[in-house]
User: Which sequence fits this backbone?
């Protein structure tokens, strides 16, 4: 596939953009990455996603596709070469979509609240539901992986990408708050999964460096706090 037929509008630090990069990398799809300024949004982004004006946006043959999970499904259905992103089995596919939706709609907002919490009491209060969500995902991992390394089995799949894109930011927030989110004793499956996920060659090429993310967090988190209080 020619590079100029696939473009990705995004920001290097966005986990949702990283999702799409991971799927493109796993599928060996060449693409052009176009960094976006989310303060002064460019004409191409506003034209490509006029409804939400958000990243990521995948542009394939001049046609824009928005929302990271939608883009993952699109990539899997258009580029049908191995490895698949979604399971072939229809029940397993439905379960994968369920847990990906849970991650975005339930767990990530809890993680985001914890990331921007200030003060010992607020941090402690925000941390507990994040842990509870990870315990749920531990059970999901056991059921989806069927004893293998990834949610998707032997290879990285849909739920792996949906959750794994947050691992870089989880490391940053762990260091900032001196906590351990993926505890080997409490969530051993997820603990080992994270190690295997980050060790995968496709992930290494895409996952932002923790130190670089930590520098970005110094500017980003105060802005999120300010917006939340305004």
Assistant:
């Amino acid at each position: 596939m020619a590079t100029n037929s696939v473009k990705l509008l995004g920001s290097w630090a966005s986990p949702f953009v990283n999702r799409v990069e991971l799927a493109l990398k796993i599928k060996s799809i060449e693409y052009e990455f176009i960094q976006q300024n989310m303060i002064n949004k460019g004409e191409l982004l506003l034209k490509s996603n006029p409804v939400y004006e958000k990243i990521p946006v995948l542009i394939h043959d001049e046609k824009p596709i928005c929302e990271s999970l939608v883009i993952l499904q699109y990539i899997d259905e258009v580029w049908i070469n191995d490895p698949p992103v979604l399971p072939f089995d229809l029940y397993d596919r439905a379960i994968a979509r369920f847990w990906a939706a849970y991650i975005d709609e339930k767990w990530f907002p809890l993680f985001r609240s914890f990331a921007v919490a200030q003060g010992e009491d607020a941090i402690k209060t925000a941390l507990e539901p994040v842990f509870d969500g990870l315990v749920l995902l531990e059970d999901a991992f056991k059921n989806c992986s069927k004893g293998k390394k990834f949610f998707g089995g032997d290879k990285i799949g849909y739920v792996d990408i949906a959750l794994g894109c947050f691992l870089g930011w989880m490391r940053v927030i762990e260091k900032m708050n001196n906590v351990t989110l993926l505890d080997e004793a409490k969530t051993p499956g997820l603990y080992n999964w994270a190690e295997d996920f980050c060790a995968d060659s496709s992930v290494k090429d895409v996952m932002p460096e923790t130190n670089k993310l930590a520098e970005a967090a110094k500017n980003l988190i105060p802005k999120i706090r300010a917006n939340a209080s305004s």
